[in-house]
């Protein structure tokens, strides 16, 4: 089972990976363009952590669990 902080970290690391791919001159232009296209709509680190914080607040004291975390731990 994936924990909220693991999911959060994976999303943040994926953004970093897409940024890396978009700048890699050894990749074909098509692949770099695809990475840039995906990044246009991908959540930033800050947005992911803010969503995690909001989910933690909204689920506190309920039977629900957040999908994201406010920390990358």
Offer a quick outline of the entry.
The chain has helices at 4-23, 29-40, 45-59.
The counted number of beta strands is 0
Tell me the fraction of residues in β-strands, as a range.
under 5%
Mean pLDDT comes to 97
**SS content category:** mainly alpha
Order of helices and strands: HHH
**How far apart are the termini?**
16 Å
Task: Indicate the radius of gyration in whole angstroms.
Answer: 15 Å
Choose one word for the global shape.
elongated
Structure description:
By secondary structure, the protein is mainly alpha-helical. The chain has one domain. Helices cover 64% and strands 0% of the residues. It has three helices and no strands. It has helices at 4-23, 29-40, 45-59. Helix 1 (4-23) crosses helix 2 and helix 1 (4-23) runs antiparallel to helix 3 (45-59). The protein is elongated and about 50 Å long. The two termini are 16 Å apart. The mean pLDDT is 97.
Task: Name a few traits of the molecule.
single chain, 73 residues, mainly alpha, 0% strand, elongated, BPSL0761-like
Tell me the layout of helices and strands:
Blueprint: H1 4-23, H2 29-40, H3 45-59
Helix pairs in contact: 1-2, 1-3
InterPro entries: BPSL0761-like (IPR049723)
